[in-house]
Amino acid sequence: xxxxxxxRVTRMLLSVPAVLLRRQAVKDAELLVLRHENxxxxxxxxxxxRYEPGDRLWFAALSSLIPxxxxxxxxxxxxxxLLGWQRWLVARRWGYSDRGGKAGRPTTATVVKELVVWLxxxxxxxxxxxxxxxxxxxxxxxxxxxxWEILTAAGIGPAPRRCGPTWREFLTAQAESTxxxxxVHIDLVDLRRVYALIFLEHGTRRLHVSGVTAHPTAAxxxxxxxxxxxxxxxxxESLRFLIRDQDVKYTESFDAVFQAEDIETVTTAPRAxxxxxxxxxxxxxxxxxxxxxxxxxxxxxxxxVLESYARHCNGHRPHQARAQRPPxxxxxxxxxxxxxxxxxxxxxxxxxxxxSRDEFLNGTR
Length: 365
Prior knowledge:
Residues 161-334 form the Integrase catalytic domain. GO terms for molecular function: nucleic acid binding. This is Integrase. InterPro entries: Integrase_cat-core (IPR001584), RNaseH-like_sf (IPR012337), RNaseH_sf (IPR036397). It comes from Streptomyces botrytidirepellens. By secondary structure, this protein is an alpha/beta fold. It folds into 3 domains: 25-90, no CATH class; 110-164; 176-322, Nucleotidyltransferase, domain 5 (2-Layer Sandwich), CATH 3.30.420.10. It has 13 helices and 7 strands. The strands form 2 sheets. The chain has a 5-stranded mixed sheet, with helices on both faces. It has a two-stranded antiparallel ribbon with strand order 6-7. α2 (24-43) runs antiparallel to α3 (53-63), α3 crosses α5 (79-94) and α10 packs parallel to α11 (252-259). The N and C termini lie far apart (117 Å).
């Protein structure tokens, strides 16, 4: 107790000369700090002390008049807090926050951002520079760095490390060079059965009815392959693969017709119709939309039904795989700009009315 008392008295005596030697401005500043702190405590008697912006402004202003080594004894907050208030005041003074507009380059329109993201997704091998060039061709001036910022915000990585094409995109690209074939049987009225060999182009979904016979043989099948090669002509050179099953009627001579055009034959596994799914699907469609609703009398009638449906399918029937376009249509029909104008609709019956082809006439009624 005695030692502690002597220590406190000694500290008080030593602090008296320091106070006397201190400048008057410093003492006045410390006095103002203490008075303001007293006012804060009187204002807020319950709960923790919370300083308002005016209190922070006052303490920060007085801190410039008091030596830093005295801040711990004078101010009710730590020096770091006081310096933070001072930086806030400087930022408010020199930050130009009262200006109306935002500084920097103008913002990019939302439609342009959506276009950048769409180009990146549709073309996974395009980098920022390539997308920038495509935008310039479309009339949008945008920097490569801005394109990178838009792609990064959308979660799309750089082109070299961006994910490759999806399975749908990959298989669609391979379908352009693939053709498939299969036999379809048709039951006649007299319970006899005839067979037709059909070919389906995967890329365009174009259907070819090569021939109809009651007795398909290996020689007949080879001749149908030759007829297809003559019918398709130069277009056959763009194909790369032929998909078929392991029917005994497909002989080496049949494969040789396509090998002469550099087309590789791919055989499906036994009892695996899904390996030739597109051809199986078109056979089912042919039955549901035509053959199941017609009494077929003979071989010639069967050929007429199949060829009529093939012409309708290739020229007018929409296909989901081609964005509702027929196989022979290069572009989708133009949308009607004026729905109030009365137009004449022409309906052409196919196969006696089993299906129809509807088209608007050029003139109006």
